[in-house]
């Protein structure tokens, strides 16, 4: 009686956790593992900044104070600049940005892209909740100026305006990029609008003296990490479902949105 030969394959239930995480064909394999690692790496700078803020690292505090003092002096001498910054910070505050995101949700839902609508809601909700929770956990006070040009309530780190501007800009950019396919000028315009929304909104908070510069940087980093993480997870689901993925930064998260019936 001949002995059985060596097994040619290993049953899925007998595979190690490491092998399953690196499986290119598994639904929770290599693609999701790489997405999780990428999201983690994006989150690392925010975590390091938060540690420095909580630990009241002297060089960071001195840099924040110097930036705030310089911008406050400029604002005190230029009332027109203050009016522009106040108008911008109100128009692009978290409330209006969430309304804009909701309008996008309704639009993509009516086009039949319900999972894309869920991605937008998830990105905005998760980012907003994380920002509110971290404000309470860190408990950082806002700048105190002798002659403030604006006031704001609540804790300071991370900046809610900077965070929500990053979330909204990321969502809107990745939803509408498919419509600029084959048009470099259109793609450049979308990226320019997104960068201006994020950059000027953050600048307005420091220019008005209601946030430290590191608060704004923290909002940008956290918002970028959330968008990267949810977009990576959405991309993984699309690949698992056999849908075309493309390059996220060029084709957006749902390339078929241009022609949902194609």
Write a compact overview of the structure shown.
With 262 residues, the protein is mainly alpha-helical. It has helices at residues 17-21, 30-54, 58-77, 79-91, 94-110, 114-138, 160-176, 184-207, 213-240, 248-251.
Structure description:
The chain is mainly alpha-helical. The chain has a single domain (64-258), classed as Up-down Bundle (Vanadium-containing Chloroperoxidase, domain 1), CATH 1.20.144. The chain is 68% helix and 0% strand. The chain has helices at 17-21, 30-54, 58-77, 79-91, 94-110, 114-138, 160-176, 184-207, 213-240, 248-251.
Summarize this structure as a short list of keywords or feature phrases.
single chain, 262 residues, mainly alpha, Vanadium-containing Chloroperoxidase, domain 1, 10 helices, 68% helix, 0% strand, PAP2/HPO_sf, Undecaprenyl-diphosphatase, PAP2/HPO
């Amino acid at each position: 009686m001949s002995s059985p030969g060596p097994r040619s394959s290993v049953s899925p239930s007998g595979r190690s956790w490491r092998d399953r995480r690196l499986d290119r064909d598994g639904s929770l394999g290599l693609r999701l593992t790489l997405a999780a690692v990428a999201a983690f790496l994006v989150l690392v700078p925010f975590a390091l900044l938060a540690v420095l803020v909580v630990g009241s690292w002297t060089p960071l505090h001195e840099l924040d104070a110097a930036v705030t003092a310089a911008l406050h002096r400029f604002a005190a001498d230029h009332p027109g600049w203050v009016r522009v910054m106040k108008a911008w910070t109100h128009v692009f505050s978290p409330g209006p940005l969430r309304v804009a995101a909701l309008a996008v949700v309704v639009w993509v839902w009516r086009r039949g892209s319900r999972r894309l609508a869920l991605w937008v809601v998830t990105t905005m909700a998760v980012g907003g909740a994380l920002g509110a929770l971290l404000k309470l956990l860190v408990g950082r006070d806002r700048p105190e100026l002798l002659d403030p040009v604006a006031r704001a309530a609540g804790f300071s780190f991370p900046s809610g305006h900077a965070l929500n501007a990053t979330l909204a800009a990321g969502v809107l950019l990745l939803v509408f990029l498919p419509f600029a396919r084959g048009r470099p000028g259109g793609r450049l315009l979308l990226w320019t609008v997104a960068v201006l929304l994020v950059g000027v909104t953050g600048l307005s908070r420091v220019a008005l003296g209601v946030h430290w510069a590191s608060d704004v940087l923290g909002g940008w980093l956290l918002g970028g990490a959330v968008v990267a993480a949810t977009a990576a997870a959405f991309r993984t689901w699309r690949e698992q479902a056999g849908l075309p993925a493309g390059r996220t930064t060029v084709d957006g998260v749902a390339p078929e949105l241009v022609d949902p019936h194609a």
